[in-house]
Amino acid sequence: MSTDSFPELSVLRLALAPQTRDRHLAEVVSAIRSAPHRRSGFRLSWRRWVASAAAAGALLTPAAAIAADGALPGDALYPIKRLLEPVVRLVDRDVIAEHRVEELEVLIARDGSSDIVTDLLIDARAAVGAVDVPELRDRLAAIEEVIDQRTTDRIPASTDRPRVDTPPVDPPVTTSAPADAGHPTDGHAPAPAPDLEHRDSVAPPEDSPPAVDAPSVTTAVLRDGTTHRDGLGGEAADVDSAPAEQPVIDEPAHDAPPESGDTRETDAPTVDGEGDRAP
Amino acid sequence: MGVPGRDLDEWADGIRRRSEDAFRAVYAVVADDLASFATGMLRDRRAAEDVVQQAFLELVSAAPKFRGDGRALRAWLFKSVRFGCLDEIRRRSRRPETPTDDLPEQAVVPLPGRDDHPELYAALETLSERQRALVLLRHVSGLSGEEIGKVMGMRRPAVYAALARAERRLRGTLDAGSDEMRRETA
């Protein structure tokens, strides 16, 4: 402290008045109490938040892409895989078709859900059709053969049932036999129509013993209806309870009654509405 | 006269936490030195008090970000007061002088410090703002060369060199004023 050279300046040293001090301190305390308290936790400014999010995205996107690479339909990461495919496609145009075929192969090997396989097969056909890769076409054809084979194998061996070629939208199917041939009493159950799922709610006439196990028929038709929709063995209308002697029906007989005792109108389109009614 | 250096160390952490006790303690230690420095810069005690108060309010806002010990805290406050003084000086330079003849008589109230030691203030006003700050920080507030460097944003050798020039100039002005007064008295 060298004030010796300027003793004149010592008169400039002053002391604040007590009231001035009190006023200043009151203002300071008020400012302290009104100041926002610091958050104890770690807090990011918005710039740091954006930078962190970008960095995390830059790090996680490749990781997620790698992790999702082997995902299959139904997996949690599968949407990420599908989401990133357009980006990967910029580098490899055939990647989407290849992914679909690979996924189908894995699902077939695992005997996956038929619904997922069906949906995936549709995607695969579209993807393979969009690229010109014979190898993928061959692999897809092999997969389709396996699916067809499995659809055929699902028919229980105990019932040597015939295949009923049923068009997708057809009136109730009857046999090619005479009109009364479909009556249960003759030992030949009528072929089920594609919309037989409604029939299990319709009780057959009491005087006619049910030759067809309605719930079983419904189940079979539902399963086939699904496969028929996507063309996977849809040509076969499986009836579990159909007798072994059931003839193969190639064309629906519109003039024959759909089933004995079925007097209601069906939802299926018909060529001749009168022919669908039971006598 | 505040104690330069370590007396504020124990309060630096409290300042960061916005402790009222810490602010009261720091105010008690340095407020007079700050007010003396500001009064010498502005030649207006009331304006100097406002500048000191504003410095502490700014410290309340900046407290969580403050890093350093008691010496850094002291330098921070002096720097804030110096900037407050510069703002006030610039404000005065932009504000036209109001003719006192146009004001009512009761409004012309002498401000405290305005008319004290007119020769001393006249000598200080011969210095540049920078030189005046150096002299006041050194000889009124009692800061060390290192602390002055922090307040003024100068390296210590530059502080000593500039301070020496300012002291020579002020001494010359004061001595000249004393000789003139002596001649007038004789």
Notes on the protein architecture:
The complex is a heterodimer of chains A (about 280) and B (about 190). In chain A, about 45% of the residues lie in helices and about 0% in strands. Chain A is built from 7 helices and no strands. Chain A has helices at about 20-35, 45-70, 80-90, 95-110, 115-130, 135-155, 215-230. In chain A, helix 4 packs antiparallel against helix 5 (about 115-130) and helix 4 (about 95-110) runs parallel beside helix 6. The longest helix of chain A has 23 residues, at about 45-70. The model of chain A is unreliable at about 170-250 and about 250-279 (pLDDT under 50). In chain B, helix 4 (about 70-95) crosses helix 7 (about 145-150). Chain B contains 8 helices and no strands. Chains A and B meet through helix 1 of A and helix 2, helix 3, helix 6 and helix 8 of B.
Protein traits:
A: 279 residues, mainly alpha, B: 186 residues, 70% helix
- Strand element count of chain B: 0
Give the low-pLDDT segments of chain A: 171-249, 251-279
Task: Write down the overall mean pLDDT of chain B.
Answer: 83
Instruction: Indicate the percent of residues in helices of chain B.
Output: 55-70%
Mean pLDDT of chain A: 65
- Using only C-alpha atoms, the radius of gyration of chain B works out to 18 Å
Task: Write down the secondary-structure element order of chain B.
Answer: HHHHHHHH
Oligomer: heterodimer
The tally of beta strands of chain A, per DSSP, is 0
| First-last Cα distance of chain B | 37 Å
State the low-pLDDT regions of chain B, or none.
Answer: 103-112
Query: Main interface pair?
Result: A-B, 26 and 37 residues
Taken from the alpha-carbon principal axes, the silhouette of chain B is elongated
Shape of chain A: rod-shaped
SS element count, helices of chain B: 8
Helices and strands of chain A, in N-to-C order? HHHHHHH
In whole angstroms, how far apart are the ends of chain A? 126 Å
Any idea what the radius of gyration of chain A is?
Answer: 39 Å
